Amino acid sequence: MLKSIWEKIRVTKVTAAVWTALTLCLVSVILALTGNHVEFSRNMAVLVVGEAKLPPEELKTDYAPEEFALVMPSSAPEPIFELEGEKVLKELTVVHPAGTDMTTYDSQHSLIGASDPAEPLLLNGEEVERTKNGYFSLSLALEIGENIFTLEHKEKTQSYIIRRSNDIIQAVYPSREQTVSGGAEAVFTAIAKAGAEISMTLDGRSIPLLPELPSADEGYIRYEGTLILPAAQESERSLGEPKFTALFEEKSESKKGGVITLAAKETVAGSGRLLAEVVTYQAETLDEKIDDYSRAVNTYLPAGTVDYCSDNEKIYFGSSSTRYRLLDYGKRVYVSTDQKGDNIRLYKGSLPESNSVSVASENMEGRHTSIAFNVEWKAPFACSLSPQRYEGADGPGRPNYNVDSLSAEYFDIRFYYASAGTGVIKLEGDPVFSRAIWTSEGGDAVLRLYLKKTGAFYGYSAEYDENDRLVFSFLHPAKPEVSDNKYGFTLNGISVVLDPGHGGPDPGAVGSNPKFPESALNLSLASRVRRELEAIGAHVVMTRTENESDLRLDERVRITKRVKPNLFVSIHRNASVSVSSSGYENYYYLPYSQPAAKAMFGAVSPGFTEKRGSYYGPYYVTRLSDCPAILTENGYLSNAAEFQRLLEDGQDDKLAEAVTAGIVNFFAAQS
Fold it and tell me: Are 69 and 56 contacting, i.e. CB atoms less than 8 angstroms apart?
């Protein structure tokens, strides 16, 4: 009888919901006859056989075809985030500038806000051009000295005093009080007019500050100079305020920084040389030269990595002061960061004179290939994709690691202090690598993993496991399946992390109407992209689903590392001091993220008047190595016309489809 019932059901065209309901009824009948039952909860169903409970994957009907299985959703779908608030404001509202009396070094200043479109808005007696919602974004030309601008709307009058300074020195660092360790090598910086001569005096010693960009001939630029601070004493000692002096076109000017205090001499426990051990989940390494630039060739070292380090700190005084220790193998690591807290711990001890590295295992499972190494101690290593060409990486000033095309042929792991590596890596059936060899560089063992296809690399991570083995995990290419849906593919088995930028107390950029900050617009778009991706089979994780969520950048990175996705996309909106700026752009950090940025740009930028490009961008969240990671800037909120267009009904739905198409196109190119 049951078989007859099944045959009747099988040939009937019903929806998935009806299939599920009918199957549950049949299961209940069978279980009732056999003395068993099913327990249901909000997130799952459990088959109870006598007193034993079987997980949902065991809940199959014996009489159904093999391909039919009861699938219970793990949770209800997340709702779409809808923007709320009045789009037309009836009173004059100015979001920028925030104050009414200010000083700037810029030749122009923006005035952004909204007003009742039914009533005129005057600026210094002249009518202001606005959008149909009453939004305005103006660029105010500034003369040297005091500039007064008065807005009039209805019965309200608001005046702004903006002083344009002609000072030689714009800013000096450190600008606030600092307590530092004695003997530190410190870089002092000043922002001053190009062509000026800058010096800094501290504790009776003077040093010149040289321009970071020697070729600059106008505007304000960065100047830097290095000073070795006095050794620490038994008690703390004040060095006073650093005095910066500038000479420009026969005019002299000085500005003082924050008081610098030397901390009392500290005694580090233990005997032997000073050691630095990574105590956060990963620590970025930087070149020996003291600057604070992340570079696409930098490697992150996992927790537990240890090496001898410099007795004294290296300090970079910039807009934020950063402290480093130089490790013996030649790279710097942060002592601490705002995002992670302590990066390293210091203690005294001794390390073996050399390290040994041998292959412990290799495993290909799911979306990753893992290779584990036995090591004598947790020494530093460096990873590189080679040979990869970059544009402007070696120029002065901020490094530029733009990638025009992917040229890498292999992935190298250099094991410092190990003269040779042992063990065979077979890579049978591996989708990323064709073969592996041991070689050497500078006396260190190097494992070279050859790519199957030039540039075809998708991400990696490294960590020490519970057995103190160093485990590298390499991401496989995605495998979308051709489909007749509007995107042409399904993304079953593919995982994507969407990161709506800002949130909580951080609104991000604010356009003419403060009721719609960037944080809300980002979440609105991201939730719609999630809906589109899930509809074609993708597994999607959002770093936040509420606009009140206060999520630090490092938390977003940690979420992504736990998920181990095929792609990370951070969704933002842009802003600029130039209110005429508009359009779409995106950013990547590592070379293997460039194809994702390129695919996204090709799909999304046609929806914008200005197609600004894809660029190298060393943002905190793009520096992920685990998978391709990009940051997208979907329009300028500082441009009143573009801001209004972004708020139009259905605009985020169209934009979400374009973003989804970009993601699908990126994955399709991997198959």
Answer: no
